[in-house]
C-alpha cells in the first residue's frame, strides 16, 4: 500500500492501525477500500459521520463516483448524529452538511439521519434503532474522533452499552464546534447513536487527522479501556480500523 509509515495490529484487540504519510494517501486508501467492498456487495448499509474530517472524504468520494458513474442505488446510509433543535435546512445542521457534501451528488437508495426536531425525542431515538435493525444492521460505520475522545456525540462517561439517545454536549465539544455557528449559540444537546449501537456495526473505520488529535489517539490506543474515553470502546470490537495521518499518529509512530 502506498505511503504508509506504520501498520500494526494492537495485540490484545481487533484494532488495526494504519498511519499514512499524507492526508491525501489516507483518503485515497479509505475510498479505494470502500468502493471495493461496495462493488462486491459486501456492504449495503453504511454508517456515516460529519465534521471536518469527512468534508474531504465526501468530496473525493462524490468526485470519484461521478467520474466513474458509480451507482449507490442499492446502498442505504445511516448518520451518527444530529443537533437537537436545529432545523434540517439550517446550514449548521448535519442534515444540511450531508446534503451539501454528499447526498446531492450521489444516488443513494435512502439516507437516514436521527431526527433532532421531533416533539418526542426519546421516541425518535427508539425509532432510529428500529430503522437500523430492520435494515439488518450497519455493515461499516465511519467515525471521526473528538479531542476529548467522543465518538458520535457520545461524550466522556457515556455507557458502552448505550443505544441511540439524547446527549448533553461537553463544554469542549461546544467550544470546538462553535466555529461552524458563526457567533450563534451551539446547541447543548444532540441525538446520537449510542456506543452500543456503534459497536454493533460489523466493521468500524475511524479517521483522525491533524496534530490536535495526536494525544487522544494515543490515549485511545494505550490508555485503559474506560468510559472516560469513549473511543477506547473500539478496542472491544472485532474489526475496527484506525486511519491516521502522520500528525494524528505522531505520538504512536
Ligand atoms: C460527527 C461526529 C463527531 C465528529 C468529531 C470529530 O458526526 O459524530 O464525533 O466526528 O467531533 O469532528 P471533526 O472531524 O470536525 O474534527
Write the layout of secondary structure elements.
Layout: E1 4-9, E2 16-20, H1 23-39, E3 45-48, H2 52-67, E4 76-79, E5 81-83, H3 94-103, E6 110-112, H4 121-134, E7 140-143, E8 165-168, H5 171-177, E9 189-192, H6 195-199, E10 203-208, H7 214-222, E11 240-245
Parallel strand pairs: 2-11, 3-4, 3-7, 4-6, 7-10, 10-11
Antiparallel strand pairs: 1-2, 5-9, 8-9
Helix pairs in contact: 1-2
Bound molecules: fructose -6-phosphate.
Fructose -6-phosphate is lined by residues 49-53, 80-81, 144-146, 150-153.
What does this structure look like?
By secondary structure, this protein is of the alpha/beta class. The strands form 2 sheets. Strands 1-2-11-10-7-3-4-6 form an 8-stranded mixed sheet. β1 and β2 form a beta hairpin. α1 crosses α2. The longest helix is centred in the first third of the chain and has 17 residues. The two termini are 17 Å apart. Bound molecules: fructose -6-phosphate. The site of fructose -6-phosphate (F6R) has 14 residues, from α2. The site of fructose -6-phosphate has 14 residues, from α2.
What does the overall shape look like?
Answer: globular
Mean pLDDT, as a whole number?
96
Rounded to an integer in angstroms, the radius of gyration calculated over CA atoms is 17 Å
What percentage of the residues does DSSP assign to strands (E)? 15-25%
Number of strands: 11
- Count of DSSP helices? 7
Bound molecules: fructose -6-phosphate
Between the first and last Cα atoms, what is the distance in angstroms?
17 Å
Q: Uncertain regions: pLDDT < 50 for 5+ in a row?
A: none
Biggest sheet record: 8 strands, mixed
